[in-house]
Structure formats: structure tokens, C-alpha cells
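Hello Y.,

Per our agreement to keep a running log of every chain we model this quarter, I'm adding this entry. I've kept the format consistent with earlier entries: sequence first, then predicted structure.
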Amino acid sequence: MNTNLVLTRSTTLPLETVCQRLPEIATRLKFGVLATHNLREKMESKGVPFHRECRVIEVCNPQQARDVLSQAIEISTALPCRISVYEEGGRTVLATIKPTALLTMFGVAGAAGAAQEVEDTIVRIMDETCQG
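Predicted structure for the entry above:
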């Protein structure tokens, strides 16, 4: 995996516990939770067997989003931020694409500061979620 693009954290907490804690922590840190996608359920509902548990939780800080979208509306293609939660090797893993890496693709200099703030908060959300 390219660690220049993806941030991961892992924990011994069960996946269900992580999926319950993460939205609570995100909300406390001023990030809204827009949706949670259960990939196994979604794929199986479409007739595609998928036996792994994987949830994708969409989070967003509306003020930060407004600031970067005001500079370049095409950044909307990379929003909201997504944190995946899945099991791997007996642990629960949280993974996200680095906001700083995503926004670099758009070449909007004014968005770098906001991207770093968002990334720092997402790391904090992931770290606090992993703590028992």
C-alpha cells in the first residue's frame, strides 16, 4: 500500500464498536457524519457475494468544505472524506486517503492549509476511535 496516499490505524476493538465510536468522536471534533455504507450488505443486496465486513463512513467539516469549494468547485469530486473500517489479520483497521494528497491533485494553493487541518483532525478521529 502506498503510505504517501493512505493513512491507517488499527485496534483490537471489534468492528462494531469502532463503527459506533467513530461518529461520536467525529461529531465532537466538529465533523458531521453524512453516511455509513456497509459494503458487504450493499454488494450482497445486488446479488454479489462478499464475505468481508467493510464499512465506509463519510465525514465532513462543513466550514472547511465551504472554504475549499469556494476556491475550486471541482474539489467536490473528492468530498466528503471517507474512513473505511474493516477487519484484517485479527484487528480492526481504519483507513483514509490523505486529504493533503487528494487536494494536491487539484493544484489549488489556497486549499493546502485547509487540507492539512482536515487531515490532522481525521488522524485525531482515527486515533481516538482506536483507543479503548
